[in-house]
Amino acid sequence: xxDKLLKLFNKKNKWTLEELSKEIVVDSSSKIVELMKNxxxxxxxxxxxxxxxxxxxxxxxxxxxxVKDISRYEFSVSSPEKKVYVEKKYAxxxxxxxxxxxxxxxxxxKIKHIFAHNIYRITGYFIKLNxxxxxHSDLDFYRDFEIANIKQxxxxxxxxxxxxxxxxxxxxxxxxxxxxxxxxxxxxxxxSLLIKNNVRMDFNKRIEEEINNLPxxxxxxxxxxxxxxRFLQTVTIDGDDAKDFDDAVSxxxxxDGYSLFVHIADVSHYVKEGxxxxxxxxxxxxxxxxxxxxxxxxxxxxxNGICSLNENVERNTITCQMEIDKQGICKSYxxxxxxxxxxxRCTYKKxxxxxxxxxxxxxxxxxxxxxxxxxDDCAKLLExxxxxxGSIEFLSMEPIIELNKKGKAINVSLRELGQxxxxxxxFMIAANICVANYMDDNIIPSMYRIHLDPEYxxxxxxxxxxxxxxxxxxxxxxxxxxxxxxxxxxxEESVYLAVSxxxxxxxxxAKYSNECLGHFGLSLDQYCHFTAPIRRYSDLVVHxxxxxxxxxxxxxxxxxxxxxxxxxxxxxxIKERDAIAVEREINDYKIAExxxxxxxxxxxxxxxxxxxxxxxxxxxxxxxxxxxxRSLNGYYEYEEKSMSLIGYRETYSIGNRVKVKVTDVNVSxxxxxxxxx
Length: 677
Prior knowledge:
The chain is of the alpha+beta class. It has six domains: 2-57, no CATH class; 63-116, CATH 2.40.50; 121-185, CATH 2.40.50; 205-449 and 517-585, no CATH class; 453-507; 599-676, CATH 2.40.50.140. The strands form ten sheets. The protein has a five-stranded antiparallel β-sheet, with no helix packed on it. Strands 10-9-12-13-11 form a five-stranded mixed β-sheet, with helices on one face. A five-stranded mixed β-sheet has the order 14-21-20-17-16. The radius of gyration is 28 Å and the shape is globular.
C-alpha cells in the first residue's frame, strides 16, 4: 500500500482521507488501519504533510529542517543537505528550533507547515505590569504566558526562572521548573542560558561518594607499577586562568635531535568504566568553556585535584615518548604508564615573553631557559614537517570577552596566539599521531578523530570566490597541500580573511569514529585525540583501550569494544556539536551586551558572507553582525555564484572593507545590526 500511496501523490499532490479511501478501495476495518498506518509513517518520515484537512506531498525541492533566528528579519531553515532563508513575515507562529517545511513560491521561500516544536524549556524573568507579576521570556514568542504553578513559589520582580512548556497555545501554558536567581545576581544570565540548553551542571551524591573514596595523592604501590619519570624536568604550559592540567612536557636534546615526552593525566586509572563518575562523564562527553566559567566533564575535586598535573606534586600519567630527529621526523615512540613530578606551572604569556626576550620573564623562568629554547626549536621542526605534508593552518578569529566584577561584558578583543601556544599544539598533535598509529597498525579498538575530504559542490563555491579575486585554485585534484598553498599565496589581509572563512566552511565537520579514516585538515592518514582526558571523553576511551590492549596485553575478542566505541563516537560527536553551539550562543549574547553601548558608532569591517537578504560583516575585534539589504540605498541583485550584492553604483562582495554603523542590538538573541556608513 505504501508504494501505491506514493504513486498517487506523485500524480496528484493533494488528497483528502476520503479521496484516498475511495481510490485505494478501503472496504474493511483492517484496510483502514493499514491505510492510516502507512499515512502516519510517511508523515513521520516527512514524505507527506497532514494539515488536518488533507494530505500533500513534500517535494524534492522543498526543505524540511530546523529553524534558526539569524536576524531581525529572517529565519534560516537547515536540513543536512540544504539551508534556505525565510523572511519572518512568511513564517507566522514559528519558533526557534521548530521542525518545519519550507516551500519556494514565485521565488520566495515560505514556511508552510510546522511538523514539531522542539523547545521544551524557556528562560526569562518576572516584571510588574499593571500591578501584577508577568513572565517575560528571554526570546520573544509573540504571545503571553500562563504559569500553571506560580502559587507554589514566592516570586519577586526580576526573579529569573526556567519554565517547562506544557502546552503550545496562546497564551502558552508553562510551569516553573527552577528559580535560578535574580537578574541583579552576577552570572545568573549565563546560568540561565546553560539551563535553557540542557547543560548538566550538578554532580549527584553517589558521584561525591566515589570521589571521596579516591586517593588524594600518588601511592608508593602505584609508583612501583609505573615508569618513574620524576627525575625529568617537567612543566605544564597553559592559560593564565587554567585550573585543570591535562598535559605536561619534558624534553632532552641529544646528538640525533630530541627526546620529547608528552605526559597526559591518567584519568582512566581513577575513573572506572561503569562507575557513577564515568556515566556522568559520558552524558556530558566534554567540558564547556564560556566567558565566566568552565562547566567540567569531571567533578572539580577530580579535574582540579588528583587527575590534574599540578605544580610540585607527583601524578600518575600516560607518557608518549618520541624520538624526533633534526628534520622534525618522529623516528620512534613508546607509550607507557608513568609517574611524574611537575616542576613548574608555566603560562603561555610568560613563555611567550621569554621567547620575545623579556628580561623580567627570563629572570622569573631562569631555570627553564634551556628547556624553553629546546621546546621552541623542536616545535619549529615539527611545524616544518606539518607544512611539508600539507597541514592546513586556518586563521583563528576567537574572541576574548572581558567581564567586570558584576559579570557585564566590558571589552571584546581578538585572541592572539603566540609561539608558546604553537609549541604545545605541535607537541600534542605529535603525541596524538603516535597513539593513532599504534592503535591502527595493531588493529586495537579505538576512537579516532576523522576529518573527511570536502564535497565537490562546496569546493565549487570556494573556486567561485577565488575567481572573484583572480586567485587560481585547482579543485579537480584537491588535497590539503592545495588548500595550504592557496591560503599562503594571499597577501592582502581582508582577502585572506574572506577566503579563509569560505575555505573553512568548505571543509566537512571533524567528528569521531571507530574507524581510522584520516584527517584532511592535518593531512594525516591516522589521527586520534589522546591528550585531554580531563575534558574530552574520546581521550578517556583511547586511554582505556591503551591500558587494556597495550599495558595489560588483553588477547581476547575485540568485537565488543569495536561495537561499543562505534556508539560512543556518535555520542561524542553529538555532544561536541552541542557544546560548540552553547559556547557560541553565550559568546554572541555577551558580545551583543558589549555592543549595546556602541549604537550609532562607526567601525571598519570586512564583509565575510553575502546572502540574498544582506551581508554579514566582521569588525577587527571579531564582532559580527548583519547589514540587511533593506538598509542599502537603491536596488540590489544577489548573484549566488560570486556571492555578491550588485547595485547600479555599488557592489558588495566577500572580502570588501566597509565602514558600518551600529543600528540595533538584540542582546537576548545575540544579534547586532549594522548599516553602511
